[in-house]
Design goal:
This protein is mainly α. It is built from 8 helices and no strands. 62% of the residues lie in helices and 0% in strands.
Length: 232
């Protein structure tokens, strides 16, 4: 379910961004006017610059490059001083962050009214921040977890099954989109309902994961990593 939501950043989120106010530097207008008045005419039009809908998702790889060392050397050690941050706790936290990210996109979609102003693209950028944080906590952790928890003779198979979950997520989304499309081209989940539907599914999946993780006992089967007991 995580990947079913994540992969929509290249589809549903782009369509949403196309209907949003993408003048991402409009908040600089007072500064721009002051600079132009003082003779710095080269900054004229800066606040009116507009980012293209398909360009918004470029923030994801940029944030990943920033967050991986930030979490590895900063956030994770700091949290570990307060509470033991097991792999399952990282994954559960990341899944809840994905719920929050999609909830923001749903609220933005609710804000799209023909008579009212469009929601600013900064809301989707905030959703990308949460989604990328979730990716760092879930994807990287799951890759390591799949390797350490699998028996020596099944490590490749278990890693492959984990990677298969990405394809299954995409397939699930494709099936949903197929079944909610009416013959006349309308949608059974119009507007924000589409995003709330996936938000609800992700929340239910996360809660079920937490229940299962509470009873799971982590054991490293890799010779060089030792054995660690723990749960969510």
């Amino acid at each position: 379910m995580f990947w079913a939501l994540y992969e929509q950043t290249g589809a549903a989120w782009v369509l949403q961004a196309d209907k949003m106010d993408r003048q991402w530097l409009s908040w600089l207008q007072p500064v721009e006017q002051s600079l132009v008045a003082s003779g710095a005419t080269f900054v004229g039009g800066l606040s009116a610059s507009e980012i293209k809908a398909a360009q918004v998702q470029a923030i994801n790889p940029l944030l990943i490059m920033i967050m991986i060392p930030l979490f590895t050397y900063g956030i994770y050690p700091a949290v570990n001083r307060v509470v033991r941050l097991t792999p399952l706790r990282k994954v559960a936290t990341g899944m809840f962050l994905m719920v929050a990210a999609f909830a923001i996109t749903a609220l933005c979609r609710d804000a799209h009214r023909p008579a009212g102003p469009s929601a600013t693209i900064w809301w989707q950028l905030l959703a990308f921040l949460l989604l990328t944080t979730a990716e760092v906590m879930v994807s990287i952790t799951c890759l390591e977890f799949s390797y350490t928890q699998a028996p020596n003779k099944m490590k490749s198979l278990v890693m492959g099954l984990y990677l298969l979950s990405n394809a299954i997520g995409n397939f699930f989304t494709a099936c949903v989109n197929f079944f909610i499309t009416n013959a006349d081209g309308t949608n059974k989940l119009p507007g924000a309902d589409y995003y709330w539907f996936f938000t609800g599914l992700m929340l239910a999946t996360t809660l079920l994961f937490c229940v299962y993780a509470a009873f799971y006992r982590e054991k490293s089967l890799h010779p060089g990593l030792g054995t660690v007991a723990g749960s969510c």
